[in-house]
Amino acid sequence: MAHLRITIWNEFVHEQNNKLVQSIYPDGIHAAIAASLRALDDRLEVRTATLEEPDHGLSEKLLRDTDVLFWWGHCAHDKVADAIVDRIQSRVLQGMGLVVLHSGHFSKIFKRLMGTSCALKWREAGERERLWVCNPGHPIVRGVETCIDLENTEMYGEPFGIPEPEEQVFLSWFEGGEVFRSGCCWRRGNGKIFYFRPGHETYPIYHNPQIQRVLLNAAHWARPEGHWDDVTKAANVPADKAREPIQAKGGSVH
After folding, report:
1. Which of 224, 228, 12, 222 is nearest to 98 (CA)?
2. Helix 29-40 crosses helix 209-221 at what angle (to 10 degrees)?
3. What is the mean pLDDT of residues 169-194?
4. Domains located in the chain, CATH noted
5. Residue 5: in which H helix or E strand, if any?
6. Which helix (H) or strand (E) element contains residue 82?
7. How many angstroms separate the most distant Cα atoms in the chain?
8. Residues 211/214/219/220 CA torsion (nearest 10 deg)
């Protein structure tokens, strides 16, 4: 199988401002995820990008050279430039995979692609979570246990303001009684999208081997399948350029 080019994007704010987050992810959440993916599969080409880099680290060339983009954001959603969101959306429609993590549910790019509020209930009380596999035949759960137990986590609860998932992979139960659709798949254009809920910054969730396996599987699942041209722009095809000869009839309102 051809190598897979992955970019891990992280706003990289909490790790610089919060000592607890620094102690868990001293080089940033993006670096921790990148290191785990490289350790699990040496065929991957993994790079990282962060908010404060030029173009948020997401130049047109880098995105052209990215097969799957991971997205982690929380407190700086509004600082992501709309032009970069447009750029990412275009690449997803062309075929780039997108894996949206935890509070990235409220990112501009996820809300743009979903077309809904993406709102939810939440509570940070360090409670236990049981992350149940509800689609055991799905490629994203290959090698994953039936249930992943997370000792301490942030609760996300229903209702979750998303379109009906095309594939439901995980369902969470929390100690306080709430449940949540924690692993959801969609297609937009030619691109695959996976939303995966676990990953609050004050808990070492991305150091969990089962979570790391899910992320690796998600990257392989979301890899491009062919390429569509830029489908965000309409293109007129004149009658004299048609593949078969035709005689144009009628007027035009364009």
Report:
1. 222
2. 80
3. 98
4. 5-115+182-230 (3.40.50.880)
5. strand 5-10
6. helix 82-94
7. 71
8. 150
